[in-house]
Design a protein that fits this description.
Biased composition (Basic and acidic residues): 81-110
Biased composition (Low complexity): 68-80
Radius of gyration: 27 Å
Largest sheet: none
Number of domains: 1
Distance between the termini: 79 Å
Pfam families: Retrotran_gag_2
Region (Disordered): 68-143
Biased composition (Acidic residues): 111-123
Strand content: under 5%
Number of helices: 8
Number of strands: 0
Protein backbone atom coordinates (compact mmCIF):
# COMPACT_ATOMS: atom_id res chain seq x y z
CA UNK A 1 0.00 0.00 0.00
CA UNK A 2 2.82 2.36 0.92
CA UNK A 3 4.49 1.81 -2.46
CA UNK A 4 1.24 2.43 -4.35
CA UNK A 5 0.49 5.62 -2.43
CA UNK A 6 4.06 6.79 -2.95
CA UNK A 7 3.95 6.07 -6.66
CA UNK A 8 0.84 8.22 -6.96
CA UNK A 9 2.52 11.08 -5.05
CA UNK A 10 -0.03 11.06 -2.23
CA UNK A 11 1.92 9.46 0.63
CA UNK A 12 2.72 12.85 2.20
CA UNK A 13 -0.99 13.72 2.39
CA UNK A 14 -1.70 10.35 4.03
CA UNK A 15 1.05 10.72 6.61
CA UNK A 16 0.80 14.44 7.37
CA UNK A 17 -2.72 15.36 6.26
CA UNK A 18 -3.55 18.94 5.31
CA UNK A 19 -5.25 21.90 6.93
CA UNK A 20 -8.88 22.38 6.04
CA UNK A 21 -10.31 25.90 6.61
CA UNK A 22 -12.57 26.13 9.67
CA UNK A 23 -15.54 27.41 7.66
CA UNK A 24 -16.70 28.45 4.20
CA UNK A 25 -16.14 32.06 5.23
CA UNK A 26 -12.53 31.31 6.19
CA UNK A 27 -12.08 29.53 2.88
CA UNK A 28 -13.37 32.63 1.09
CA UNK A 29 -10.58 34.73 2.61
CA UNK A 30 -7.78 32.58 1.20
CA UNK A 31 -5.37 34.10 -1.31
CA UNK A 32 -5.36 32.71 -4.84
CA UNK A 33 -2.21 30.68 -4.09
CA UNK A 34 -3.65 29.30 -0.85
CA UNK A 35 -6.92 28.36 -2.58
CA UNK A 36 -4.98 26.60 -5.36
CA UNK A 37 -2.93 24.69 -2.79
CA UNK A 38 -6.09 23.73 -0.88
CA UNK A 39 -7.73 22.43 -4.07
CA UNK A 40 -4.60 20.41 -4.91
CA UNK A 41 -4.45 18.99 -1.37
CA UNK A 42 -8.12 18.04 -1.48
CA UNK A 43 -7.63 16.34 -4.83
CA UNK A 44 -4.59 14.40 -3.55
CA UNK A 45 -6.52 13.41 -0.42
CA UNK A 46 -9.45 12.11 -2.51
CA UNK A 47 -7.01 10.21 -4.70
CA UNK A 48 -5.34 8.67 -1.64
CA UNK A 49 -8.69 7.66 -0.12
CA UNK A 50 -9.69 6.05 -3.40
CA UNK A 51 -6.46 4.02 -3.47
CA UNK A 52 -6.89 3.02 0.18
CA UNK A 53 -10.53 2.00 -0.36
CA UNK A 54 -9.56 -0.22 -3.29
CA UNK A 55 -7.20 -2.22 -1.09
CA UNK A 56 -9.77 -3.01 1.61
CA UNK A 57 -12.24 -5.79 2.18
CA UNK A 58 -15.90 -4.84 2.72
CA UNK A 59 -15.79 -5.03 6.54
CA UNK A 60 -12.76 -2.77 6.80
CA UNK A 61 -14.16 -0.39 4.22
CA UNK A 62 -17.31 0.07 6.31
CA UNK A 63 -15.16 0.99 9.31
CA UNK A 64 -13.29 3.76 7.52
CA UNK A 65 -15.87 4.92 4.97
CA UNK A 66 -16.82 7.97 7.01
CA UNK A 67 -13.25 9.17 7.53
CA UNK A 68 -12.97 12.72 6.30
CA UNK A 69 -9.37 12.41 5.12
CA UNK A 70 -6.93 9.77 3.97
CA UNK A 71 -4.97 10.28 7.19
CA UNK A 72 -8.10 9.43 9.21
CA UNK A 73 -8.72 6.44 6.92
CA UNK A 74 -5.34 4.98 7.77
CA UNK A 75 -5.83 5.76 11.46
CA UNK A 76 -9.23 4.04 11.54
CA UNK A 77 -8.20 1.02 9.50
CA UNK A 78 -6.81 -2.31 10.59
CA UNK A 79 -3.49 -2.62 12.45
CA UNK A 80 -1.88 -4.01 9.31
CA UNK A 81 -2.53 -0.70 7.53
CA UNK A 82 -1.06 1.21 10.47
CA UNK A 83 2.06 -0.95 10.34
CA UNK A 84 2.38 -0.40 6.61
CA UNK A 85 2.46 3.39 6.92
CA UNK A 86 4.31 3.53 10.23
CA UNK A 87 7.72 5.13 9.70
CA UNK A 88 9.08 3.39 12.81
CA UNK A 89 8.70 -0.07 11.32
CA UNK A 90 6.49 -2.98 12.30
CA UNK A 91 5.16 -3.39 15.85
CA UNK A 92 5.97 -6.41 17.96
CA UNK A 93 3.34 -9.14 18.46
CA UNK A 94 2.29 -7.95 21.92
CA UNK A 95 1.64 -4.42 20.63
CA UNK A 96 -0.41 -5.84 17.77
CA UNK A 97 -2.54 -7.88 20.19
CA UNK A 98 -3.16 -4.81 22.37
CA UNK A 99 -4.05 -2.73 19.31
CA UNK A 100 -6.42 -5.47 18.11
CA UNK A 101 -8.15 -5.59 21.51
CA UNK A 102 -8.44 -1.80 21.70
CA UNK A 103 -9.83 -1.72 18.18
CA UNK A 104 -12.35 -4.45 19.02
CA UNK A 105 -13.59 -2.50 22.05
CA UNK A 106 -13.77 0.80 20.14
CA UNK A 107 -15.36 -0.66 17.01
CA UNK A 108 -19.04 -0.18 18.07
CA UNK A 109 -18.35 3.46 19.02
CA UNK A 110 -16.55 4.13 15.76
CA UNK A 111 -19.33 2.53 13.73
CA UNK A 112 -21.98 4.63 15.50
CA UNK A 113 -20.03 7.85 14.86
CA UNK A 114 -19.47 6.83 11.24
CA UNK A 115 -23.16 6.26 10.66
CA UNK A 116 -23.95 9.74 12.03
CA UNK A 117 -21.57 11.50 9.65
CA UNK A 118 -21.87 9.25 6.59
CA UNK A 119 -24.60 11.30 4.91
CA UNK A 120 -22.76 14.58 5.51
CA UNK A 121 -19.56 13.12 4.07
CA UNK A 122 -21.36 11.76 1.02
CA UNK A 123 -22.89 15.17 0.35
CA UNK A 124 -19.51 16.92 0.81
CA UNK A 125 -17.73 14.53 -1.56
CA UNK A 126 -20.46 14.77 -4.18
CA UNK A 127 -20.53 18.57 -3.92
CA UNK A 128 -16.75 18.76 -4.30
CA UNK A 129 -16.86 16.33 -7.24
CA UNK A 130 -19.58 18.36 -8.97
CA UNK A 131 -17.66 21.59 -8.42
CA UNK A 132 -14.51 20.03 -9.90
CA UNK A 133 -16.51 18.66 -12.85
CA UNK A 134 -18.04 22.09 -13.45
CA UNK A 135 -14.60 23.70 -13.49
CA UNK A 136 -13.29 21.06 -15.90
CA UNK A 137 -16.31 21.53 -18.18
CA UNK A 138 -15.78 25.28 -18.11
CA UNK A 139 -12.11 24.85 -19.06
CA UNK A 140 -13.07 22.42 -21.84
CA UNK A 141 -15.68 24.85 -23.15
CA UNK A 142 -13.12 27.67 -23.20
CA UNK A 143 -10.66 25.45 -25.09
CA UNK A 144 -13.31 24.42 -27.64
CA UNK A 145 -14.35 28.05 -28.17
CA UNK A 146 -10.72 29.01 -28.67
CA UNK A 147 -10.24 26.25 -31.25
CA UNK A 148 -13.44 27.21 -33.08
CA UNK A 149 -12.29 30.82 -33.24
CA UNK A 150 -8.87 29.79 -34.62
CA UNK A 151 -10.47 27.51 -37.22
CA UNK A 152 -12.96 30.24 -38.20
CA UNK A 153 -10.13 32.75 -38.62
CA UNK A 154 -8.17 30.25 -40.73
CA UNK A 155 -11.23 29.61 -42.94
CA UNK A 156 -11.84 33.36 -43.35
CA UNK A 157 -8.18 33.91 -44.24
CA UNK A 158 -8.31 31.08 -46.79
CA UNK A 159 -11.54 32.42 -48.30
CA UNK A 160 -10.09 35.93 -48.49
CA UNK A 161 -6.99 34.58 -50.24
CA UNK A 162 -9.17 32.64 -52.69
CA UNK A 163 -11.28 35.71 -53.41
CA UNK A 164 -8.17 37.83 -53.94
CA UNK A 165 -6.68 35.23 -56.27
CA UNK A 166 -9.95 35.03 -58.22
CA UNK A 167 -10.12 38.82 -58.48
CA UNK A 168 -6.57 38.99 -59.79
CA UNK A 169 -7.29 36.24 -62.33
CA UNK A 170 -10.40 38.08 -63.47
CA UNK A 171 -8.48 41.34 -63.89
CA UNK A 172 -5.80 39.64 -65.98
CA UNK A 173 -8.35 38.39 -68.50
Amino acid sequence: MRALLGSQDVMEIVEDGYTEPASKEAEGTLTEAQATTLRADRKKDCKAKSIIYQGLDEATFEIIASAKSSKESIGASSPSMKKDTNKGGPHNKEENKVEDLVEEVQKPEVEAEEEETQLEDDVDIRTMSHEEEDKEEEADTTTVRSLIKEISNAIIATNMATIATSAEATQMR
